[in-house]
Write a structure and sequence with these properties.
By secondary structure, the chain is an alpha/beta fold. Helix content is about 40%, strand content about 20%. Its EC number is 5.3.1.23.
Length: about 375
């Protein structure tokens, strides 16, 4: 996608040295556009844990390149397994991370150590290219939803509410839910996006607003708790969100606060659609509330906020009362009954086992989920 008209992806291999990996430091956005050069698997792990790189599909792709970086120094079987396990422990909720590492292990285990480095880069490249094609297709399958709304209100913008960040900076390119919005905008459909700030890390007001602004998409940042009010007054035509894990029965784990948006949408009869790539499916889980591990991040993220002063200095200040503790669950689970439908690279379906199996018939048998990357 574009930054001021210049196309970019979110991860790439250095064109000159042919092996180091570049990402945007998302902790610096939107105040500064800084590019990090990663040369070691420990740097990759730090980037994922610290959220210098984030977004479920993107962390899977970056971890795949992290494994390739590690094999440059030691391509033994032991190194392959230990580094994959280490990278797999960096973020617990997003299933894409485990999916990407399991795919890397499957590709590399049969390869002789002498040939593993080249094979690892090829496998990581394939994961990145698969993500690009997948996200492009998600946008194409979601576009008819926006077209239908636009046809019902000619001359008026389609008002879309989104939560967290689901754009190209969270994937390799295009995004998931934002892919739908970008493709609608690029097709000439008038759209306007209500951007939830997404406390406590403000991925909406920092990243989604930055992305949309750079691409020229009309948008307005709102407080997280404003969405229900806007729905009550007819100011939201559709809610589009992404997800970090979707279960066999259609439950959706996404950034904390998504469940409340789904409840408000259900109460106000506003369609609530979830966009996801195949790598986000976890068909080994049936009950999202009971089985999906929810990452608990540092309390300081809740007790402080980072911003830029009028003098241009980026600072972090405490906003909570001195001495007050904080709790910071990073995700919540929206039950399938509150989800209007799922938008995937294979099409749209209802949020249910039957709906998912219609698009992914290869999962008709109860799977034994690959655990290699987590063990």
């Amino acid at each position: 996608m574009n930054i001021d008209g210049v196309p970019h992806r979110s991860v790439w291999v250095d064109a000159e040295d042919g092996w180091s990996v570049h990402i945007f430091d998302q902790t610096r956005l939107p105040w500064a556009v800084e590019i990090l050069r990663l040369t070691h698997e420990d740097e990759v792990a730090h980037a994922i844990r610290s959220m210098q790189v984030r977004g479920a599909p993107l962390i899977g792709a970056v971890a795949a390149y992290g494994l390739a970086l590690a094999l440059r120094r030691d391509a033994s079987d032991a190194a392959l397994e230990s580094v994959a396990a280490m990278l797999g422990e960096t973020r617990p909720t997003a299933i894409n991370l485990r999916w990407a590492l399991a795919r890397m292990l499957e590709a590399l285990r049969p390869v002789a150590p002498a040939a593993r480095v080249a094979a690892a880069y090829a496998a990581a490249d394939a994961i990145a290219e698969d993500d690009v094609a997948t996200c492009r297709a998600i946008g194409q399958h979601g576009l008819p939803l926006i077209q239908a709304i636009a046809a019902r209100k000619p001359g008026k913008p389609v008002n879309i509410l989104t939560h967290c960040n689901t754009g190209w900076i969270a994937t390799v390119d295009y995004g998931t839910a934002l892919s739908v919005i970008y493709q609608a905008h690029d097709a000439g459909i008038p759209v306007h996006v209500w951007v939830d700030e997404t406390r406590p890390r403000n991925q909406g007001s920092n990243l989604t607003a930055w992305e949309l602004g750079k691409h020229g998409v009309p948008h307005t940042v709102i407080a997280d708790n404003a969405g229900g009010h806007l729905m009550q007054h007819g100011e939201v035509d559709i809610v589009l969100v992404g997800t970090d894990r979707v279960t066999r029965n259609g439950d959706v784990a996404n950034k904390i606060g998504t469940y409340l948006k789904a409840l408000a949408a259900h109460d106000n009869k506003v369609p609530f659609w979830v966009a996801l790539p195949h790598s986000t499916l976890d068909m080994s889980v049936r009950d999202g509330l009971r089985e999906i591990p929810i990452e608990e991040r540092a309390a300081e993220e809740v007790l402080t906020v980072t911003g830029r002063t009028e003098a241009g200095e980026v600072v972090t200040v405490r906003t909570a009362a001195p001495g007050s503790p904080g709790a910071n669950p990073a995700f919540d689970v929206t039950p399938a009954r509150l989800v209007t439908g799922l938008i995937t690279e294979r099409g749209r379906c209802e949020a249910s086992e039957a709906g998912l199996l219609r698009l992914y018939p290869e999962f008709v048998a109860e799977p034994e989920f690959v655990e290699e990357a987590a063990n």
